[in-house]
Amino acid sequence: MLAATPVAAATPPPNSMATLGDSITRGFNACGWYVDCTARSFSTGDDTGVNSHYLRIRAVNPAIQGRNLNDAKTGARSADMYGQAGTAVGQGVDYVTMLIGANDACTSSESTMTPVATFRANIDSALNRLKAGLPNARVAVLSIPDIHRLWYVGKDSGSARSAWSAFGICQSMLANPTSTAQADVDRRARVRQRVIDYNTQLTQACAAYGANCDFDDNAVFNYPFVLSQVSGWDYFHPNTSGQAVLASVSYANGFGW
Residue 71: left if φ>0, alpha if ψ -120 to 50, beta else—which one? Predict the structure, then answer.
């Protein structure tokens, strides 16, 4: 008698990878004052304190050694993903991670956030470029972190409030952080809903891509991070501890290599 055939054969771990995204993926402020710190990127970094996707894959497939490419750019928005996808296609990688959308919602004011339909069109164009150029690659799409929680865990910290104000950080959400006025409560709720709407579009776009795309089922969005996992320089970006958690949570909800 023949053995039962598995429903889906296990996908072998990739031999190369690239990552698309913004300052979070660049490890910005994770090891120095207002600089990228790609060694501590949750995705492609090689810092053992973070234990990135790259290091986790390397542990089971040493062939990926040195083939970890960080194509993210600090300040990037969804509109930049098409160009970054083109870079990844040119690199011919087997695995791509994408974390984008924080800068689409974290803007100078609520009115300047990226419209949901525009966000989806930007994501679709990037994913279509990946699918056409890297038809066999696996793509991991991460949910956008809950920036409302950032307000919640930081609003009672004088240092956090000072940094948010001095550097004009995510004012769509973080303006008037101690205010309990209904207008500010409602604004924060609308900005949070925009992130939820973006994540819904990421879910749908990844599903439309097919079996080679995996969405994290909002694992990153739902993670209850604390202020000690955020950079003490800007109280916005993940520090080393935050990058480590981001790596762990997102990888556990990925392809399972």
Answer: alpha
Does residue 160 have a pLDDT over 90? yes
Write out the two tokens for 150. Answer: 């950032």
**Which of the 8 DSSP states describes residue 18?**
E
Judged against a pLDDT cut of 70, whether residue 146 lies above it is answered with yes
Whether 7 has a pLDDT exceeding 60, the answer reads: no
Q: Strand 17-21 and strand 68-70: pairing?
A: parallel
Q: Could you tell me the domains of the chain?
A: 17-252 (3.40.50.1110)
SS3 239: coil
Predicted pLDDT at 163: 96
C-alpha separations of 49 from 30, 37, 112, 148, 233 in Å: 11, 13, 37, 27, 19
> CA-to-CA distance for 111 and 182, rounded, in angstroms?
18
For residues 204 and 123, the answer to whether their CB atoms sit within 8 Å is no
| Residue 186 to residue 67: CA distance in whole angstroms | 45
Which residue, 182, 236, 157, is CA-closest to 190?
Answer: 182
Residue closest to 106 by CA, chosen among 70, 78, 140 = 78
Under 8 Å between Cβ of 153 and 226: yes
pLDDT digits (tens, 9 = 90+) for 201-218: 999 999 999 999 999 999
Distance CA 177, CA 163 (A): 12
> Quick one: average pLDDT of 100-124?
98
Angle at 54 between CA 58 and CA 19, to 5 degrees: 145
DSSP string, 104-138: HHSSSSGGGSPPHHHHHHHHHHHHHHHHHH-TT-E
